[in-house]
């Protein structure tokens, strides 16, 4: 049976290679590909994903999995092999429900849609993107229908990002979170605002870039196994455990943008770099879920990067990098500025107190699009109305509203809730880490991040996707995804900053 497993792994390894090749083409598309490459690139991506789909859904794969499933029952259920077989079986059962032509069409449609989204966003013209999004919504609804019966049409989409999680569970978590978070934002709004004008002076592009590089180098991002480039929307991608790449964008009059997005993507990347190498070229060579992935990126970005301890170490360096902008700004003032709470239009620039409200708005709109109660044509208006309702601000143009995120153009409906769930998980993990590393704060003050990264590698990273997200959180913290620690963290932090 061991030989059977080895042969099966070799077969799965080839499929994995096709996916990695697709990722590389996708990375290129978003970084260096000239605009005229878009049409042919979308064909190449469609071909690769079709080949991978055909290869992974043959009757031979199904038969091998039936045999291996029995073998897995004789193994330690937490062993790599048992978990690999389990996950491969789940993915096989999912993939065989969807016709290969549909998979290829989806790849082609989304590759083109991304190009149109870039144009639409640049011109702030939703009509350029609208027909493409309409097709994507249709295709996603068809996709969900392959998984009937479901409790909710959104469940099959969510499951692709959060294995095992149900729409009803997410709604339940958000129903507890939302009122507390809205209340907190209101309380903060009633207090005097902190000053942050100095963050919006002109900060030289290259110096911003270099500072971000220095920060994630100290965090432990491995440059021998990655690189950073520029793209319209920062992202992380990998073509194996040894090649995990990030991108960022630099905005000269917003020094926090590149800096925090570099820490964020660095957090995703260190997760991928920390996978156990024995998982290489298997389906387990990935994060447990997008929420767990976000828990890593948000931890480095916020719990580390927006902490007082972090800036005790890095602020003098930032001041000497930008003496004219920050020379006369005391650290405490800077710390408050990077934690300023202010309802704004752009999710990726949002502060920790309002961030989840951006996410909940998207989740609700996605669910309505999938249920068919909201038409794509009405999306910009629905978006703006809800922004007004939740955050009290109205986007003046679609580029700062409905067109701001890349996800829908890539067909990633079901992804957004993972951002908020990731925030919740980050604080659940953080509480546990601080129990086990009691002097973490003073380590961070000294620019020492190795104990933190080691803890994450040991408890989260090395496992890859062996465990489902709820299972992993339960194993580490003793409870499932829970909004209370996050709310407690926000309240403590902003009570100090805003004197609530
Ligand atoms: Co992220």
Q: Helix proportion of residues, in percent?
A: 55-70%
List the strand order in the largest sheet. Answer: 1-3-2
Which percent band covers the strand fraction? under 5%
What is the element string, with H for helices and E for strands? HHHHHHHHHEEEHHHHHHHHHHHH
What would you say the CATH architecture of the largest domain is?
Answer: Orthogonal Bundle
Number of helices: 21
Main beta-sheet strand count, sense and barrel state: 3 strands, mixed
Terminal CA distance: 63 Å
Ligands (ions, cofactors included): cobalt (II) ion
Rg for CA atoms: 22 Å
Provide structural commentary.
By secondary structure, this protein is an all-alpha fold. The chain folds into two domains: 2-149, no CATH class; 167-498, Neurolysin, domain 3. Helices cover 64% and strands 2% of the residues. It has 21 helices and three strands. Strands 1-3-2 form a three-stranded mixed beta sheet, with helices on both faces. α2 runs antiparallel to α5 (100-123) and α15 runs antiparallel to α16 (379-391). The structure holds cobalt (II) ion. Cobalt (II) ion is lined by residues 264, 268, 294, 297. Cobalt (II) ion binds at residues 264, 268, 294, 297.
